[in-house]
Amino acid sequence: MKSNTWTIIKKEFARFFGDRQLLFTTVIMPGLLIYIIYSLMGTGIQSMITKGAGEVVTMRVENMPESMAPLFGAMDSSLVVVQQPVTEADIAMLEDKELNAVLVRFPEGFDELVIGKCEVEREALPNVEIYYNSTNNAASRVYMAVSTMLGNYGRTFTVNVPQVEGQRFDQATDDSIGAMIWSKILPMLIMMMLFSGVMAIAPSSIAGEKERGTIATLLVTPMKRNELALGKIVSLSGIALLSGISSFIGIALSLPKMVGMDEGVDLGFHYTTSDYVALLLVILASVLIMASAVSLLSALAKDVKNAGTMVTPFMLVVMLAGLLPMFQDGASANLAVYLIPFYNGIEVMTAVFSHELEWTPVVVTMASDVVYTGIAVWALTRLFNSEKVMFSK
Q1: Predicted pLDDT at 258
Q2: Structure confidence at residue 127 as a pLDDT band (50, 70, 90)
Q3: In sequence order, what E strands does 97-162 have?
Q4: What is the location of CATH 3.40.190 in the chain?
Q5: Coil, helix or strand for 182?
Q6: What is the DSSP letter of 135?
């Protein structure tokens, strides 16, 4: 059995690696395109953010409170703070882009209004009006800086100590914030990359052979049908894994440009060896069951085109499952979730990227996916034994 299965695997590998165009489009091109596109996007975004850096912006402040004057004075050196009334004419000039400034209007007696305000009365805090034109990048940065400063000030609810040195009011660290971001984005991206790899080769491997008539040659050999099914699934999984790895490398190389890490920004992409091992194991399990499912659908299809049509709804299900982490906090603690095919892999990836890795869910996920793959091999064997399915026109 092992010899026949290995023969099928070598046949599929020879077909794939012998076709340079297929090899390039399936393994090399995904990672290359992702790297180029994401890098260009990141460079463009960084350019938009940094455009106008160093440009002198005037801030006109009306009714500057004594408590706020030192904070405004400590802002960026490219900002010129002028205390003068803000008029409607000034606001109109902002709209017409005739004035490069940020206009801030404090209510009279601001310090007296905020003294003694507690958190339950926060809605009673006085409103500070900030006028700017968001199409001006320099003015937008100043607006964000002022908004952040006022937000930090409001959270303290005291005039004398608007920002206590060394005290952090937001207890989230850069690492935990970064982990939250990756846990909501990367599982879906990885699953889609793996699925794309499977889609690129599985239909042509089974439905394509039915369409060309070469499947009949394999079926008349003394090889057992379960050996043929296992060989197809294992070989397709290996090739799809190469495509997924290529795409993952493309994302990993482009992420620094995409999120500004090459500019010194730390978004907490810090993971241990155990995290990477768990990620690799769950990727292997996920791609195995993906190849199994797509192989089954491909065997039922009449030709490659029909196979692509049948697999599309399945792809949408995987995409929707990949979106679910965006609406939850971390991975699920319910082990029953890790028995659900495809979604269990997404949950484990979410746990890995959010620094909540536990090995029990990983083991349950891998065991269940192996069982499902065994069921798929059995089902695919039954399909190979059906002349009605294999020779349908």
Answers
A1: 58
A2: confident
A3: 101-105, 129-131
A4: 57-156
A5: helix
A6: T
Strand order in the sheet with 101-105: 79-83, 57-62, 101-105, 129-131
3-state SS assignment for residue 207:
helix
Q: Please, what is the angle between helix 343-353 and helix 174-212, to 10°?
A: 150
Residue 124: is it exposed, middle or buried by C-beta count within 10 angstroms (0-12/13-18/19+)?
exposed
Instruction: Supply the DSSP symbol for 301.
Output: S
Q: Where are the beta strands (DSSP E) in 129-228?
A: 129-131
Q: First CA to last CA across the chain, in angstroms?
A: 31
For position 168, what pLDDT does the model report? 41
Phi and psi at residue 57, to the nearest 5° = -120, 135
* The predicted structure's pLDDT at residue 367: 94
Per-residue pLDDT of 140-198, as tens digits, reads 777 877 777 776 665 544 433 333 344 443 444 556 666 777 788 788 888 887 887 78
User: Is the pLDDT reported for residue 109 higher than 50?
Assistant: yes
Helix (H, G, I), strand (E, B) or coil at 77: coil
Tokens of 69: 């004057």
List C-alpha distances in Å: 213 to 327, 348, 352, 391, 392.
47, 41, 45, 8, 11
DSSP structure class, residue 58: E
Count of alpha carbons within 13 angstroms of residue 301, beta-carbon side: 25
Q: For residues 75 and 145, is the Cβ–Cβ distance under 8 A?
A: yes
Q: In residues, how long is the chain?
A: 393
Q: Give the integer Cα–Cα distance in Å for 30 and 198.
A: 13
Q: Where does 57-156 sit in CATH, by number? A: 3.40.190
- Does pTM surpass 0.70? no
| Per-residue model confidence as pLDDT tens digits over 323-348 | 888 777 778 888 999 999 989 999 99
Distance CA(264)–CA(258), nearest Å, equals 12
Per-residue pLDDT tens digits for 284-304: 888 888 888 888 888 888 888
| DSSP state for residue 86 in the 8-state scheme | P
